[in-house]
Protein 1
Amino acid sequence: MTSVVFSIGSNLGDRADHLRFAVRRLAQEGELLAVSGVYETPPWGDTEQPAYYNAALLVRGPQSVEQWLLTAQGIEHEAGRVRHQARRYSPRTLDVDLVAAFAEDGEPILRDTPELTLPHPHAHQRAFVLRPWLEVQPYAQLPGHGWVNDLVLAEPMATEVAMMTALPQVRLEVE
Ligand SMILES: Nc1ncnc2c1ncn2[C@@H]1O[C@H](COP(=O)(O)OP(=O)(O)OP(=O)(O)O)[C@@H](O)[C@H]1O
Ligand SMILES: Nc1nc2c(c(=O)[nH]1)N=C(CO)CN2
């Protein structure tokens, strides 16, 4: 069994609907253990694009992390995601990234291949990943970077977290 923290994001079309789609599909693929709140977040990395909706999920299942990656990419495709070769961080209907994964004994699963890096190589730089992650794993540690709670409290991350808007009226939970 593996437990995976997913970051989901959308900044094209009906953002809430795209996140709900990701939750519904991942709940079909594994056991949905926790769902964070939804945040509206300023675009990171390429600022000339609309704001994102972001959230985090914790899902468990018998899959390998490589199988989870294929599932995540399949879900992005089903949501109509188009990849733009010329633009690194282009707007997208749905992004489903593996942030971190854990074996049954709680040990982090590490990968460093061209297809899959675990933990996600940019996780420690992204408020839109770290803040929702804390809601699904309050005692999370990011291998190589320490406690996630410490990361979100330290500057400049704390300022970026303050720029995120919690949207409690947007619910993602599946029935
Ligand atoms: N932890 C990971 N989660 C998702 N994709 C990963 C991961 N590690 C490596 N990848 C690889 O990254 C490639 C690019 O993925 P994608 O197009 O979703 O990137 P992005 O979302 O635009 O940027 P970023 O990966 O920085 O969030 C994928 O082909 C995938 O194989
Ligand atoms: N706020 C925000 N910015 C981003 C996001 C995202 O999900 N949210 N995803 C990106 C590529 O993975 C690049 N930039």
Protein 2
Amino acid sequence: MSNTPSPAYDIDTAAIAARIDRPLVLVGLMGVGKSTIGRRLAGALGRSFVDADEEIERAANRSVGEIFEAHGEAYFRDGERRVIARLMEEGHGVIATGGGAFVDEETRALVLENGLAIWLDCDLDTLVERTSRKDTRPLLKTGDPREILFNLKEQRGPAYSQAQIHVVTDDGPHEATVARILEELAAWR
Ligand SMILES: Nc1ncnc2c1ncn2[C@@H]1O[C@H](COP(=O)(O)OP(=O)(O)O)[C@@H](O)[C@H]1O
Ligand SMILES: O=C(O)C1=C[C@@H](OP(=O)(O)O)[C@@H](O)[C@H](O)C1
Ligand SMILES: [Mg+2]
């Protein structure tokens, strides 16, 4: 494989891609940037990208909101577990999960064993602002989004913290977050 660094980032992305050959799996709360950052990270590394929520929607032929409405959260979680197991098996380069996926014990064990989990994290104000841009997240429609996100942050923190890599994002451009992930990957043994 060529050792030419990606021109967009001041880091040897080809070396990272060659050394870390398991799926990079983005985990963290709703709005932290898993889907948008994941796509850009895959581009930087010259790897394939897949979004688990999009795959669930494709398999069910319904949106996430419609699945929650028609069948409830437990049904969605069953489908999510199955879809992520399949995506891990298929060997994608970068996988963006939905915020609840890594909380599932089975999914978490599978990702930690066969992939490299990257926990994207940011402050509550940023999450509230980013998730307010779209009304596609059923869990945030059941009450005050800030309170729901605050509680989920508390509840899910212990699961997310098991990810091998932790990156705190801020209000900067997407590229700055991608660059920070690349630095962590370059330093990862
Ligand atoms: N680092 C970032 N800087 C600025 N905006 C971001 C960043 N990451 C994500 N966003 C924006 O926040 C929103 C939610 O991002 P998304 O990738 O859908 O999050 P997730 O998949 O984690 O729920 C999108 O509008 C996205 O463009
Ligand atoms: O946190 C969660 O439980 C969820 C997060 C969503 O994905 P994003 O984290 O990509 O918004 C989506 O899977 C569903 O609405 C449930
Ligand atoms: Mg997403």
